[in-house]
Write a structure and sequence with these properties.
8 strands; alpha/beta; six-stranded parallel β-sheet; 21% strand; 6 helices; Rossmann fold
Length: 190
Amino acid sequence: MPGAPTLVVVDVQRGFHDPRWPARNNPAFEANLRGLLDLWQERGWPLVYVKHDSIRDDSPFAPGTPGNELDAELLDGAEPDVLIAKSTNSAFLGTPSLKAWLDAREIETVVIAGIQTNHCAESTARTAGDLGYQMRFVIDATYTFELGTPDGDTITADELTRATAANLAAESGEVLSTEDLIARADNGAI
């Protein structure tokens, strides 16, 4: 479907179930992501999965490890049109080229969801905005973890999510809830 909005699902991988991660935020993530996946399947819109292939052997996302696999239980039944593999934060630096794939299909609007809110999802959203795409970041279809600072403090996952929302809304595109995005789709204007 040329020009249809494309859902880019970033790094929904089993490695995020690894016990080394601190407690995450947004317990509604799974239901919200499922709502987006169902909408995209229902409409026949393009769906992109992004997978992080870490270059570090000790990473839970190292190729060939169970953590590198997509979270098939959560993504059940939603087959992507393309799978982008990356070893950096932004999906636009992966293989095959996300930009080339989108441009070949005359896609102007990208909708970003996935993990982690303030890392790979935000980096992908920033790049999308920088490249001129109409970027929609579905903030409650992402999650992240608390993060230690260089001076020994801790920033909560919710604070990081708020900062990502402010950063992206100020520069890169729109930040929406799942409910708002679905309502817009029902009105024909994502």
